Amino acid sequence: MSKDSRAKEITQSPIHSAQKHKSANKYEISSEWYRTMVKGSEEGFLLFESNGAIIDVNESLCSMLGYSREEMLSTTVLDYDFGLNNNCEKLSKMVDQLKQLGGIHHFESQLKCKIGIIIDVIGSIQYLDIESGLIFCFFHDVTEHKMLERKLEESERKYRELFDDAPIAYIYVDFNGFIRDSNKEARKLLGYTHDELTGIKIYDLHPDELKDEGMLIFKQATQGKIIQDKEVIHISKDGYKIYCLLSINPLKNAEGKTIALRSTLKDITLRKYIEQQLEESKEFSDNIIRSMKDGFSTVNDKGVQLDVNDAFCLMTGYSYDELVGKQAPFPYWPEEEYRSIQEAFQKTLKSEFDDFELVFKRKNGERFPVIVSPYYMKRPRGEITYFMATVKDITERKKMEKQLQESKEFSEKVVRVMKDGFSMFNSEGILLNVNEALCRMTGFEYNELVGQKRPFPYWAEEEYDSINAAFQKVLAGESSDFELVYKRKNGERFPVLVSPYSMIDAGGKFRYFMATIKDITERKKMTEAVRLEAERLKSLAEIVQYESESIQQLLDFTLEEAIKLTKSKFGYINFYDEDKKEFTFNTWSKETMKECNIIDTPMVFHLENTGIWGEVVRQSKPIIVNDFQANNPLKKGYPVGHAEIHKYLTIPVFFQNRIVAVIAVANKETDYNESDTQQLILLMDSVWKAVLRKRAEEELKNQLQKKMEYTRALVHELKTPLTSLQIASDILCEIATASPYLDVSNNISRSVKQLSKRADELLDIARGEIGLLNLRYRKVNLEAFCAGIKEELIPIASKKGISLECNKDIDIASVKMDDERILQVIYNLFDNALKFTPRGGKIVMSITTDKDNIFISVKDNGCGISKEKMENLFNPRKTSPENNQRFSGLGVGLILSKMLIELHGGNLRVESEMHKGSTFMFSLPLHVHKQVESQS
Question: Could you read off the pLDDT of 558-567 as tens digits, one per residue?
Answer without folding.
Answer: 788 888 888 8
